[in-house]
Write a structure and sequence with these properties.
Two copies of one chain form a homodimer. In chain A, the strands form two sheets. In chain A, strands 1-2-3 form a three-stranded mixed beta sheet. By secondary structure, chain A is mainly alpha-helical. Chain A has helices spanning about 5-20, 20-30, 35-45, 45-55, 60-65, 70-80, 80-90, 95-100, 105-115, 120-130, 135-140, 155-165, 190-195, 200-205, 215-225, 245-265, 280-305, 315-320, 320-345, 350-380, 385-415, 425-445, and strands at about 145-150, 170-175, 180-185, 210, 230-235, 240-245. In chain A, helix 19 (about 320-345) packs across helix 22 (about 425-445) and helix 20 packs antiparallel against helix 21. The first copy, chain A, has three domains: about 5-130, MgtE N-terminal fold (Alpha Horseshoe); about 145-250, Roll (CBS-domain); about 280-445, Orthogonal Bundle (Tetracycline Repressor, domain 2). In chain A, about 65% of the residues lie in helices and about 5% in strands. At the A-B interface, helix 12, helix 13, helix 15, helix 16 and helix 17 of A face helix 12, helix 13, helix 15, helix 16 and helix 17 of B.
Chain lengths: ~450, ~450
């Protein structure tokens, strides 16, 4: 079932396009899933991609458009007229349609919506665009199957045939009262098993999970993952049914969220992948590298400040990379555990209790490592006071790095800022500086310099 | 719809258990989703958890058991007899049942399976346990709705009522031939819309995605996410239908995978969260910290080796944290981009072309940063040769760190090892050492020492 994009395939395709062999191209793609065609379009030249999009029929191309990488889709849409975009959009589900249109400039958005022949879809799209990004409203689609609680099973089967044709996947059928308020749900399975003369209200389940239209999309993802839901209805404050979110959208949210956290930990300011241009990659990477450089300069200035001790205790300076590295590692570990815990809702209890626990943990780890280091320095250099200075500093640095790594994400989280910022280069750089400063201060105390 | 575990709730629960007020406890949990009850059990003491499990009926507790954290479930299962476990397992779907039983010792597994009254379930579980971990076979369940291609729609509706009662969620109905080979699929929706006298073979879709029972579970997750599938049938080499995997299991696989990658990048050897004991957290964190310590000692030895130059060029040593930090940051960025690209299947093309691209990228970033550093050192120290030594080293170190960060994950991936190992402390520590070594070697050349 794996569709492989081989070099041979791409070569063949390029030739067919050069010869304008439309029939052969259409046949080539006939049995191919739109997600695979989207991948092909990512590989071919831009002109070839446009050629293929204009050739295939809207039912297929609309789905391909939703699967394309953002930057490629942007370029393709720039090359289509408002009418052409409207034709594609009319084949889509409302949530995908709103996403596509939402990527255009406000002026183009208006023209495309005006070019739509389906007024109901136009109204739906306008509504979906009105919701804030990253909320349930921005994620949901208007297509769903809904029945009124007063209907019978037989009447239901008759009427939903029409609704079901519009809905790509029917999960739960939502039951509403005459004010369109969500009062229950039932599955197609329940419907098939039931007797024809039963009332919907009798066979439906009144307990129905729903999310508010303004709920954060990551919260929705958590809820759907926790309760193993495949679709969830979206309601307003009065419980009026507005739309529904399906699990495939949540899978995308989960993947994007994981990618984003990972990138922050690695110090990348944008969503880049290795196929992007050198300029794009530089824009994403350089800012954090610059921060690291400034941190390194800070470390240099601190060490210069202690220049005087060098004659007697040169070895002190040779241990600075060790101290800085340990500070960085401990900080990254602590912050990663907290950030992951916050993402999985595992972090309960007070900030203080967590800091105290981290302090003991860091103390334990620090003492174990410091003992090892003490023995090493003593054997290698023979100077007990030097060994003591380095080891005691290691413990202090590890404890403080651990506390910073635990505290900063929690603090950011309480302020409503994404705690994942506190992982990666930000923590390592600041811990490097703190670490070196603390190191020399302690060394100064112990060695009496 | 959010069920909040407040301190008041827990206090109330503890009191009810102390008073052995079974009726009140049962009522308390009556309307609560099993995923929420599992969270409550994570919060209460172990004895209280056992009490609640033994009190609630098997239909509910079996689902709770599947949602518990691994370590708590392990302790609870140790306190149940083989018969009691068998009673829980009989209420579960075969994939959850196999997972639970699979966590027991081999001896206990046998006793629990023998204690099962349902022979078909026992046979299913034995089959599922025979598949390797992290494959489609280990992930799948045996419950599904299947029809034969020769049936009519009317006959179908009659027969699947029985099957449908067993299946928690019916997505696609799978169509098989008389040799049980998968030949097509149809949805409940198709069934409802069709006329009663049509043959299944006429209304079913013959194109049906399936995975081989030995396929890697992360591959399955990729396929289901890419094609927006909610369930996928699992077949053997002869295309005989063996079971199916549902999207909720894939959502779990995705979350676990993201957690695991993140932890590797932060240098944690096990799956820990901030609520674990100090001992568990130490076991997870200390190994990588020890690696970092060894790396720091390596850096120390290198710097000691160049001790002689200190008199004249002390400032060289003051820049080592900067060089080491930049090497680490660049390495982490490069490896993160590659690892993420591999996970999302975005990495195509040859390793060489990727390395060349990384070299140019690192050169560009390195030169920009080095220019800045050169000016800084020149102004601060007034020595052009020192500024040159540090800046040129920075460029060299950044290029080499970038190449290592790009090459190592790709190399590991080609050897079938998880490339995510090459992120985090492993890369930062080795880059620190390489960085410092290269720095001093270049400084030696430029300064003629």
């Amino acid at each position: 079932m794996a569709f492989e994009i081989s070099d041979l395939f791409l070569e063949n395709l390029t030739n067919l396009i050069l010869n304008k062999d439309d029939k052969a191209i259409a046949t080539l793609f006939e049995e191919v899933h739109f997600a695979d065609i989207a991948e092909v379009l990512d590989e071919v030249s831009f002109e070839e991609a446009i050629y293929i999009i204009k050739l295939l029929d809207s039912e297929k191309t609309s789905e391909i458009l939703t699967e394309l990488e953002d930057d490629i889709r942007e370029k393709i849409l720039e090359n289509l007229s408002a009418k052409e975009i409207a034709e594609e959009v009319e084949e889509m589900d409302s949530d995908d349609a709103a996403d596509i249109i939402g990527e255009l400039s406000e002026e183009r958005q208006e023209r495309v919506i005006n070019a739509l022949e389906d007024d109901e879809l136009a109204a739906d799209i306008k509504e979906l665009l009105s919701y804030e990004d990253n909320t349930a409203g921005a994620l949901m689609a208007k297509e769903l199957v809904k029945v009124y609680e007063t209907w019978t099973v037989a009447g239901c089967m008759r009427r939903i045939r029409g609704q079901a044709k519009e809905v790509t996947r029917v999960h739960s059928i939502y039951v509403v009262d005459k004010e369109e308020k969500l009062v229950g749900r039932l599955s197609l399975k329940d419907l098939i098993i039931a007797k024809s003369d039963q009332k919907i209200a009798d066979i439906s389940k009144s307990k129905v999970d729903a999310v508010n239209v303004n709920e954060d999309d990551e919260e929705v993802a958590k809820i759907m993952a926790k309760y193993d839901l495949e679709a969830i209805p979206v309601v307003d404050e009065n419980n009026v049914l507005l739309g529904r979110i399906t699990i495939d959208d949540i899978v995308d949210v989960l993947k994007e969220e994981a990618d984003k956290d990972y990138q922050m930990a690695a110090g990348l300011t944008q969503d880049v992948d290795s196929d992007d241009s050198i300029l794009q990659l530089t824009k994403a990477r350089l800012p954090w590298l610059f921060l690291g450089l400034l941190g390194g300069i800070g470390a240099f200035l601190i060490m210069e400040g202690f220049h005087g001790v060098f004659a007697k205790y040169a070895a002190l300076f040779f241990f600075t990379p060790l101290i800085a590295a340990m500070a960085g590692n401990v900080g990254v570990q602590s912050s990663a555990i907290i950030v992951q815990g916050l993402a999985n809702d595992d972090v309960k209890g007070s900030v203080n209790s967590r800091l105290i626990k981290e302090m003991f943990l860091a103390l334990l780890n620090g003492v174990i490592l410091a003992l090892f280091l003490f023995v090493f320095v003593w054997i290698i250099k023979g100077k007990v006071d030097l060994a003591l200075a380095v080891s005691v500093s290691l413990v202090a640095v590890i404890v403080i790095a651990g506390l910073i790594g635990t505290f900063v994400p929690l603090f950011l989280n309480k302020r409503g800022i994404d705690p994942a910022i506190a992982t990666g280069p930000f923590i390592t750089t600041s811990n490097d500086i703190f670490g070196i400063l603390i190191y020399f201060m302690i060394a100064k105390m112990i060695l009496g310099i």
